[in-house]
Amino acid sequence: MESTHQKKATFGKRERLPCIAPLLTTVEETPQMVSARVRGHFPKWLSGYLLRIGPGKFEFGKDKYNHWFDGMALLHQFRIEKGTVTYRSKFLQSDTYKANSVHDRIVISEFGTLALPDPCKNVFERFMSKFELPAITDNTNVNYVRYKGDYYVSTETNFMNKVDIKTLEKTEKVDWSKFIAVNGATAHPHYDPDGTAYNMGNSYGLHGSCYNIIRVPPENVDLGETIHGAQVICSIASAERMKPSYYHSFGMTRNYIIFIEQPLKMNLWKIVTSRIRGKAFSSGISWEPQYNTRFHVVDKHTGQLLPGMYYSKPFVTFHQINAFEDQGCVVIDLCCQDDGRSLEVYQLQNLRKAGEGLDQVYNSVGRSFPRRFVLPLHVSLNDPEGENLSPLSYSSASAVKQADGKIWCSYENLHPEDLEEEGGVEFPQINYGQFSGKKYRFFYGCGFRHLVGDSLIKVDVVNKTLTIWREDGFYPSEPVFVPAPGTSEEDGGVILSAVITPDQNENNFLLVLDAKNFEELGRAEVPVQMPYGFHGTFVTI
To answer: Which residues bind Fe cation (predicted)?
Structure first.
C-alpha cells in the first residue's frame, strides 16, 4: 500500500469523512505476546518497549460510557529487539475496573458518565445515595509517567497506578493526597536531566482554589517508596475562587515553570453537586471566552511567582510543545485552539457517527495550531507603554506593556498555511532528552483531517515547513521520537507510531520512520484489533 508524502488538500469544511466507529469500540485484551510480521526493517540499535495507553472498554453489562475519556484503561506494549517486534495488551486492573466487572455495570463515575444508583436498592436508598460523596476513579488511562525511575499510568485525579512495564501488571495504587495537599495532578509532568520531576495539581479549600507546582525528588531513599518527598513549591491563587481553569499540561524551561490559566473553567459548585443534579463531572466545565488567557511564571528553584502579568486573547491549550529562555525572556510554544468547546464534542455518540452527521461534528471542532509566545522576565516601571518589549529578532511574537502594567502578548504562528490543509496538529513531541527546555528546531505531531489523527507531521519551527506521512484509511498515534545512539543531531533518530485502521481486512501496525526525512523504514503488522489511544513513551531495554 502506497504512502503519500507532502500531500496537499483543499482546506475548508470537510465532507464524506469515513466512519471510524471501530476505532472507538471495546476490544479484547491480548495478554500473550504476539509476534509481528516485519516489512522493511527496524534499526538494529532500536531496542526497548513502546508503551501506550488509552481507553479500550466502553461498557459493562447494559451500562455504556458517554465520553471517549471514560473508557477503561488498556495498556499496550510493543517490544522491539534486534529487528523483531512483539505486541501484547492488558486491561489495567484498577479498583474501578474490578468493581465494574464484579457488578457488571458502571459503579464509579468517570469524566463524562455518571454512575447510576444500585438498582437493587429501594427507592429511598437510591435517592439518599445521591447525597453520598462519590468514589474517585482510578481508571488512569491517559499517559505513562516516571517518578524516581518507576513507571506509573496516570490521569488527572489524585490516583496513579504503578506498573511493571515488562508484564503490564499493576503493582501498586498511589494517592497523591496522601503525600501532599493536592486533589490531583496532570498526566504530563516534566523532568530535569537528573530525574527530578515537576508536575501541577489543584487544591480546594475555604479560601478558594489554588494551582500547585509539585516537585518530586529523583531517587528513592528507601525500598518501597513511591512519591515520598514530593513537595508543593508554589501555590497560585485562581483568578476566580470557585471557577478555576482546567489545564492538561504546563511548560518548563531550565529555570522556570510556565502555567497557562485559560478561560476553560471548572465550576466547582456544579461539579460538587453533579451527582445530586444527575449530571456528569464534565457538565461543570465551560468555555468562557469573555476572559483572557493569562501566563504565570514561577522560578522552579525558589518557588517564587514572578510579578509579571502576562495576558493574551482567549485560547485553549492541551499540550505544550517546548519552552526555553533567551535574552531575558521565556519563549513558550503551544498547540492552541481559539475555540475551547472541543471537550464537549468528544462524546462517543459523536465520534461513532457516519455520513453527514460525522461531517457536522468534525466541522464544529476548533483546529489546533502551533504558536509561540514571548514573555519578557525583567519588566520595570520605566519600560515604555505601547512598545514591544521582546528583544528577539527571530520571532514576530510581541509583548507590549499596557497602561495598567499588564503585558499583552501576541503570538507568532510556527507553521505555514499548509498546516490548515492538514487539519492542524496535536500530540506534539520533541527530542525531549536533548532539547527540552532548550532552543530547538523540530517537533512532531498528528495532523487532524479527522476527529482522530490521520497523518504524522514533522514541523520545522525555524523555516516553518512541514514534512508529512499519511496512508489513506489508517490513523497514526502520537509520534514518539527515539534518538539514535552516538548522535547529537536534533532529528537524528526515528519516529515510532502505532497505526490503526477501521478496515477489518487490514492489519494494524507499528510504524518506524527516519526522523530526518520522514521516510518509512519499516512496519510491524499485528493481526489484533486496537482502539485509538492517547499517549505513551519509549523505554530502552
So the answer is: 188, 248, 319, 535
Lowest mean pLDDT among 56-70, 111-125, 139-153, 180-194: 111-125
Eight-state DSSP code of residue 245:
B
190 is an annotated ligand-binding site residue: no
In a domain, 3, yes or no: no
Q: Which of 121, 133, 188 is nearest to 160 (CA)?
A: 188
b/e sequence 82-95, b meaning 16+ C-beta within 10 Å: eeebbbbbbbbbbb
Instruction: Name the grid cell of 416.
Output: 505555514
- pTM here is 0.94
Helix (H) or strand (E) holding 303: none
Q: Does the annotation flag 450 for ligand binding?
A: no
- Span 11-53, pLDDT tens digits: 347 899 999 999 999 999 999 999 999 999 999 999 999 999 9
Sheet-wide strand order for 190-191: 190-191, 197-205, 208-216, 231-237
- 3-state SS class at 60: strand
Confidence of residue 8 (pLDDT cuts 50, 70, 90): very low
The residue behind cell 511493571 is 164
Residue 8 lies in a domain: no
Is 301 annotated as a binding-site member? no
Dist CA 335 CA 235 (whole Å)? 25
**Sole residue written with cell 511567582:** 305
Domain assignment present for residue 144? The answer is yes
Q: Quote the cell numbers at residue 367.
A: 483546529
Per the structure, the complete domain to which residue 337 belongs is given by: 21-540
Residue 272 makes CB contacts below 8 A (sequence gap 6+) with none
At position 383, the amino acid (one-letter code) is D
Q: If you search the block for the grid coordinates 520595570, which residue do you land on?
A: 380
The domain tally of the chain equals 1
d(CA 480, CA 456): 11
